[in-house]
TrEMBL record:
Organism of derivation: Paraburkholderia caribensis MBA4
Protein name, as recorded: Ethylmalonyl-CoA decarboxylase
Catalytic reaction(s) noted: (S)-methylmalonyl-CoA + H(+) = propanoyl-CoA + CO2; (2R)-ethylmalonyl-CoA + H(+) = butanoyl-CoA + CO2; (2S)-ethylmalonyl-CoA + H(+) = butanoyl-CoA + CO2
Record-listed E.C. numbers: 4.1.1.94
Sample GO molecular function, one term: isomerase activity
Keyword Isomerase: yes
Keywords in alphabetical order: Cytoplasm, Isomerase, Lyase, Plasmid
Length: 267
């Protein structure tokens, strides 16, 4: 074993699997290795028969996931590269969607771009008071690239979702709650872990096979809604990712980050 720290940590307590993205120094950005580790955690560990629920969170208190790791993805320039990136990320989110028990995203900080897509792939979202969420992909002149459009459109409806994508704003927790993107926001003085524990209680209070039966029905409904969207979303991402406008915006973003590593990024 090497001394390298895993980008995703897992533990089981009280019938709940806790999955933690562990790249706080990178604002928990989602590179390919982290996406692979998340997929493995959900595809393998989450299928233990005794589990009642899964909680997905991230290390630190600044970022749940600051989006895809643009420094790594910047080298992906062709249509084939873009399609492979979409498929890779979508496979991870599909593993979350297919988890046979409820998945609760515990938003400990910002969830931006692909990080916001990761959050809404979960069944529920519970946020700390200071957390925020932003579908900011348009600031890089691209569309959703992790397969999150179907989730967003199901939550908000087509008209509101399309406007939200076009505005590309970062929403404070209470505004996101009002819109329906979040299910609960902690009080300012209440720890996120405490809020999540309370939220999970109804699922822990019933036999695992009953919870799984409930999730099976919900998953069937969700799958029927998302299938028609996937091909269109994938094609739109490939087209926008490979357009010159995206590379211009991506370069501006990367240029901004180089001198300001200590303070982190906003998008």
């Amino acid at each position: 074993m090497s001394g390298e720290v895993s980008s995703v940590l897992t533990s089981v307590r009280g019938g709940v699997l806790y999955v933690t993205i562990n790249r706080p120094d990178k604002r928990n950005a989602l590179n390919r290795a982290t996406l692979d580790a998340l997929r493995a955690a959900f595809a393998e560990t989450a299928h233990a028969a005794a589990l009642h629920a899964v909680v997905l969170s991230a290390a630190g208190d600044r970022s749940f996931a600051a989006g895809g790791d643009l420094r790594e993805f910047d080298a992906l320039r062709t249509q084939a590269d873009a399609a492979a990136l979409f498929d890779h990320a979508a496979a991870t989110l599909d593993a979350i969607r297919a988890t046979p028990v409820p998945v609760i995203a515990a938003l400990n900080g910002t969830a931006l771009g692909g990080g916001a897509e990761l959050a809404i792939a979960c069944d529920y979202r519970v946020a700390a008071a200071h957390a925020c969420i932003g579908f900011v992909q348009a600031t890089l002149a691209i569309t959703t690239g992790f397969s999150g459009a179907s989730d967003l459109f199901a939550l908000l409806g087509p008209a509101r979702a399309m406007r939200l994508l076009a505005e590309a704003r970062v929403l404070e927790a209470n505004e996101a709650l009002t819109l329906g993107l979040l299910d609960e926001v902690c009080a300012q003085d209440r720890p996120l872990d405490e809020c999540v524990a309370q939220f999970v209680k109804p699922f822990v209070g019933h036999p695992p096979h009953v919870i799984r039966a409930m999730k099976q029905i919900a998953a069937a409904h969700r799958s029927a809604l998302s299938q028609a969207t996937r091909a269109a979303e994938r094609a739109a991402f490939v087209a926008t990712w490979t357009a010159p406008a995206h590379w211009e915006q991506a370069q501006k973003f990367l240029d901004r980050q180089r001198p300001s590593t200590a303070s982190g990024s906003k998008s």
